[in-house]
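Q: what does this look like with uracil bound?
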Amino acid sequence: MKQDNLTVITHPLVKAKITQMRDKNTTTKEFGELVDEISGLMCYEITRNIELEEIEVETPITTTIGYKLKGNDMAIVPILRAGLGMVKGIHQLIPTAKVGHIGLYRDHDTLQPVEYLCKLPTDLESRDVILVDPMLATGGSAIKAIEILKDKGAKSVRLACLVGCPEGVEAVQNVYPEVPIFLAALDEKLNEIGYIVPGLGDAGDRLYGTK
Ligand code: PRP
Ligand code: URA
């Protein structure tokens, strides 16, 4: 696993909230709130290098030079279903971002991603895309989603997941070494049925109360 282009967020608030998410007794409501809060905290790191442009601002005292985000050029793209839970926390910090959706589910037997929906901003090539999904397990879903984004013209993609494992990080890095990966936790491994260990179980089911 290469360390370039991989950022694991070590902030104490993120570590504490991820631990609460892992707890099997955390309720659906609490789980959703934690996904939302951690996504917002991660946004600080994910957007660290985005471009600014100078603007003039008049304060009550004088005129000075400040900054605004350069253009309205970001897009947030969740991988459905579980990725939806990460949108609000990021969108409220970047309200000018457009939101696209990619629907994928993992076939339970093959673990291969199956596409069922794709609705993306038409001007994707001029936007910095933040692709979000709570779990990076085999990496199959993230790789498929990045492939779809690139096919539709995306030039800049960042991948943000809450919990990942070395197998998933390596898989993405092998195919798309240029895509920066942001994680709130890097776990030990995948188990024999494709779940992250220690992980937090099935993120979609825990977020929506399904089984
Ligand atoms: C989960 C998760 C990721 C995928 C990760 O989704 O939200 O999309 O698995 O696994 P991978 O790295 O091995 O591809 P799932 O397929 O369970 O669908 P859901 O979000 O609809 O629950
Ligand atoms: N998808 C999940 O929701 N959890 C895992 O541990 C692996 C894939």
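The mean pLDDT is 96. The longest helix spans residues 28-46.
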